[in-house]
Fold these 3 entries.
Entry 1:
Amino acid sequence: MATPAERQSDLDSLELGIATDKVCFIIVKARQFDVKEGNADPNSGSDAIDDGFTDVLEDNPDDPVYRELAGFINSLDIEEQLNLVALAWVGRGTYDKSEWSEARRIAREEHNSRTAQYLLGLPLLGDYLEEGLSQFGRGCADESDTL
């Protein structure tokens, strides 16, 4: 039977299966997307200056941040997508770091072709991923040069 120190060592050696810089890119873009809101200016003027540039914060179906983020997530291989979903679940508190294998197993069972849509439907995706990374002793501060 493993000692608590050996079990902790096993947890510390868990691999995310997705590069930290990729997760950090998603965090940055998810936060840009999270600040979007519904139609803030229903009586939109003829140009951005007249509107005080408020339209840039609207959540539109053709939003370029959404498209970029969805495209990036969709371009990840299946294993990276599964790990990203599991990491979001760990960050959300659905699973603990010690349940990483279980989170990955459930992500695999529930996987479909709509991973990006699922993740972008999580209102605090950036926060969840950041917390998930911190559970693994990683963060984006060291990755800022790559963003």
Entry 2:
Amino acid sequence: MARAKRRTVQEFGAHPVDVHVGQRVRMRRVMCGLSQTVLANRIGLTFQQLQKYESGMNRISASKLWLIAQELTAPVQWFFTGSAEGKSPIAEFGTKRETLELVRNFMNMPAEARQHFLSLIKSV
């Protein structure tokens, strides 16, 4: 019986689910205000390995994803949100650092200041 050829990242590229989960890790990390180095140190990785996870080049094991979820105070399933629909909400939301920092800072504002900010944005 012939064995199926193993799927390699070099030959076929990263699996779309691995890319999606990695993007969600990056999004959550930036929104929490953590650098790759800080998060990697907290979960026992090098920043280079975390970088590979975030790009989807390396698949995240269940135990590492659980540790990441604990550090980023998010349920594990959050990292898979949107992956089954075919169109990632991340593509619509954007993963640029400026966008993620804006969201993080907005969420850290007092409620009254957020309302004033929203009114200002709507008026522009």
Entry 3:
Amino acid sequence: MTIVAAAPLVLGAAACISFAFRKRLVIVAPFALAAIAAAAGLVLDVPPDSNGTLLDLELRVSPLGQLAALVILGTLLLLVLDVWLDEPAYNFFPTALAVGATALGVLVVTAPLAIFGLLVLGLLVPVGSFTFQIQRNRSVEAATRHFAFVALGGSLGIASLALSQSLPHDQPANTFVLLAVVLVVAFALLLAAIPFHTHAALLAGEVPAAALALYFGVLVPTTFVAFAEILTLSGLLPAIVQVVKVQDLLHGIGLVSAVGGAFLASGAPDLRRLVVYSVISNLGAALVGMATLSGPGIIGAVASVLVTGASASGQLLAAGALERLSAPERPIASRAPLAALAFVVGGFAMIGAPPLLGFPGRFFMELIAYQFAPVTGTALVLATLLLIVGQLRAVISLFGSGAGHWVIERRPIAGIIGGVIFVALLIGGIQPEGFLAPIASFADEFLKAMRPL
């Protein structure tokens, strides 16, 4: 077993083992935490740019892959801890480990078709956990729609990548342009970008909060990083550069998602939908950054998405805790003040407020968007303002009842996890070089792949 593949294989094996005794929480939860910690240690132990092979697949641990893997594993660790101590759901543990294994696999594999296949597998894994507990949540329709969107996007993406890898290079340029368009549409489906977002609202309302955090906090950022990696490795970037319409398509989908998601977030009827639509808006802004095909745009896009995933996880866990402790009434801060505080500070990170780590990425994206087109830059600023409106509405909803009889939660797990995420983002925002340097290294690879010698 090559050391490059050690972490995803450890998590994959742990997922299979944990499924066998998933109903014994006192065993499976500590086991899952130990497996995630072991995988993180293996990731840290591998030097950047290490290479290896597994089943004839070339593997590589890039600086970005190592950074993203640590962010994902840290998020997974917090999610497993929350489910164990605050929201027991025995099917979650093997699901989280399997998602972690596929996410790490996506980050080390170098073959575009294999990356995409692992990504689709990871996106489909949570469907089972959505439907296993039908008596507790009405999640069958949500799982069905999610499966349909992922299956459609997966089919389009696999077809476009398979053709791009198999066709002779002397094909007309329009052929590769068409394949690039299909690939962009495929990832728009997988990312729930507007107008392909209709299943996201159903997921937000019908899926347990921890499972929703697993999807929007872990799988969606992994999908975006995979998109950037596949564009870099597939050889389709030169076609995108040569035909501006493909770039315009990516730009258009991103802009519509950024502004549309922000509008939906500003009027979201509940906390969960606010978070989900905010994620969609931030993903749209990141797609705009990528569409600029520039170093600052790529750096800002990837940095923003990784921070968005961590922020979304904290906010969704807090929203779930507020719903459980306030039911059947609307969530209010007096029933779970620490969870409410965690939700509010998570909102600061979601909008990219300084001095948190999300600020550099959003600053880079909005700055390069203005240089790309003033209208685009204005639209991204408008999206940020609308997200602020949505978060302020949530604050008023949670704290508007005044300082009545407040009761600290007996198990303030969501509040503590939200605080941990906030402190990590604050420390990262004060010293962002270690976070941005690996992303800048990837941006250099992206730009070189755009104009190969």
